[in-house]
Amino acid sequence: MKLPFAGRLLAVAVLAAASAALPLSSAFADDAAKTPTVGLVMKSLANEFFVTMTDGAKDYQKAHPTEFKLISNGIKNETDTSAQIAIVNEMINAKVDALVIAPADSKALASVLKKASDAGIKVVNIDNRLDPEVLKSKNLDIPFVGPDNRKGSKLVGDYLAKQLAAGDKVGIIEGVPTTTNAQQRTAGFKDAMDAAGMKIVSTQSGNWEIDQGNKIAAAMLSETPDIKALLAGNDNMALGAVSAVRAAGKAGKVLVVGYDNIDAIKPMLKDGRVLATADQAAAQQAVFGIQNALKLVKGEKVDAKDGVIETPVELVIKQ
């Protein structure tokens, strides 16, 4: 039977509407089924701390394969900022949904992270906090997920002070001076030493690395023969300091402390070559960042206070 013109027009309209609805509903289904990709950008993968952090992230992704995909990469040394910027650009080109980054520099990464944000990528900062004023100047709202480094290093410094006497001379081996976590750890060490009446004879950068930590420690031991302790901003530099103390024939006479609680430092804690360090949950830091990045991808709010989601840090001594 042939439909009247009005009936045929209505049938065509219904069919058109139905066919138009199919790809739309399919698109919604695709969006709902899409597994977000998180790009993890690390600092030096020659540093055991960041290897542990990366491994923790990979283990978490393996345990939650339907929740997100993970792409990870890192630079060869702590100060290669340009290489880290290039990695972020690669992540942008790969169209990741979120970036979790431990920046090599607290200011220099802001421009490329602005580019990522403008491309719709959600960004979360871990380990070393990006400079809040620089972020503000670029209209960036990037939460920092990590510990209070000043509080952590003060815990270590306070414990060291109990083994010393007021007026004793100490030296601080600092991380990369343009990074917020290096600045905060040095500040925490100074808080503890000043409160206990110690004399800080030198503060120099070992750039987070074993060899440079060794070089700075050796110089401090030579320049101040009666120095009593070396406070290293991370365990890599503490390892270098331990070697310098041994080479100077001062094992047992000069105390060394660090920060990170990497596996390589644990035998030294046990035998006393290192007095104390701080554990900031390396394997979990990237996981905390990923969890918050996924919230942002879903359009959820993160529980940040003044831009910070604080994670644990604990004093570690000989057990």
Automatic annotation (TrEMBL):
One of its GO terms (molecular function) is carbohydrate binding. It is an enzyme of class 3 (hydrolase). Its main location: other. It is found in: Cell envelope. Residues 1-29 form the signal peptide. Residues 38-301 form the Periplasmic binding protein domain. Keywords: Hydrolase, Signal. SUPFAM superfamilies: Periplasmic binding protein-like I. GO terms for biological process: transmembrane transport. One of its GO terms (cellular component) is cell envelope. Its EC number is 3.6.3.17. Belongs to the bacterial solute-binding protein 2 family. This is Ribose ABC transporter, periplasmic ribose-binding protein. It comes from Pseudomonas lactis.
